[in-house]
Amino acid sequence: MPRKRKSNLSQSSNKARTMKLARLKETFPQAELRRLKQAKRQATHRAAETPELSQDRRRQQAEYLASQRAAKTPEQSQLSSSASSALQQANYKASQIVTETVKAADTLLPEGHNGDD
Predict the structure, then answer these.
(1) Of the candidates 38, 20, 22, the residue with the CA atom closest to the CA atom of residue 101
(2) Compositional bias of type Low complexity: which residue ranges (predicted)?
(3) Residue 53 belongs to some domain of the structure
(4) What is the pLDDT of residues 70-91, one digit of tens each?
């Protein structure tokens, strides 16, 4: 009888470990550029999404968040509600920075040359 095929999960985790080490070693400008490219890829992907896919993605995210809220204890809920406004402000500021960075990158990177090649 032939041997059972092994999954390639170990290869995936090795790759993840390698990428994590690479992220830990990168400089701040390199990290900013990596995040900028990722934000641009996500924006491009979402812009190409059909309305059905977009609605499905939002529904899945809402279900995930609802399950996370349901799993919280009352103490966690109380702590998170007090920290929620600070987190919302931080998220808003971060999204503004990402938006400004993407706009700056669009002016610096010629069309079709986003470094993904």
Answers:
(1) 38
(2) 76-90
(3) yes
(4) 888 877 777 777 677 777 888 8
